[in-house]
Fold Transcriptional regulator, LacI family.
Amino acid sequence: MAATIYDVAQLAGVVPSTVSRYLNGYGVRGKNRLKIEQAIETLGFKQNLIATGLKRSRLRSIGVLLPNYTIFFMTITAQLERILAQSNYSLLLGNFEDDLTLLQTKLDFVEEHFIDGLILFSSGVGTESAPRLQQYLQKKLPVVLVEQEIPGISTDAVIVDNAHASFRAVEKLIHENHTRIAIVNSPEHIYVFRERLRGYRHAMQTYNLPVDERWIVTGRFVDMGEYAQIQQLFDLPNPPTAIFATTYYATLGTVVAAHQQHLKIPEDISLIGFDHFDPIDALEPPLSLVLQPIEAIAQTAADLLLQRLDGNYANFPQTITLSTRMAMRESIRKL
């Protein structure tokens, strides 16, 4: 079996990113350079490179795996690309469509392409990839998780306090005297949305307000067909007076559903949405939103990965929790 970059790193006693730097023509400390050259000679790795026709590139690579190509993930990815390019890293991007089998395939693919590190948006089926990720870590390949920690995996993670964000949003509606509050959420098998639902329930419970299970609407809301689920809220005998939409697409879907029912925001229904992207500014009235720290997510994930790539494992593993903020605009009416 042909030797890999990870075999070279293990034999030389260095991290794979150091071997990658050497192979790509970057300067490596003398002692490490000698160890790498000896390992390459022992393993015949240089001959393997020639045999497979691989060419050296001046640009090193980071694998970034996403559960989908929604505007949220692509915006963070664009930030990551900008940040990591400053350290001469390019991105090897993959979408696993929230499918475990496809995720395993993507994990194999990016490893075979000699990535130096991995950023995995781990919500949903990503949590089931622990055995494969453990193999990455055993090869000293740095992994940073975004959105959720994975049980059994000891590595760095960047998460957002989604439950607290939801609690504050629902609490704001309660302070405006709303007691019948619906939530338009994504599927609960995804950790982020399970946490947002938990925050919603916690706020309602804290203020001794009942939750009608019919007020909990679940879907992806990326096509018009799903908007009918939101419209059903308005047909209830005792419909909600306010809605908390937990994603960008749920927010847009709620606006469309209300418009199709000839309801005005906030006169007929109050709304707090999630995430700000430029197209949402075209809506009237301006919407109240929970704002995720997109730039901070990208910067923190990149900083952690670059620190590990430099061989600095101080305070490893780290889980960094980021907070959201709220932008209160004109989509909430006080009762």
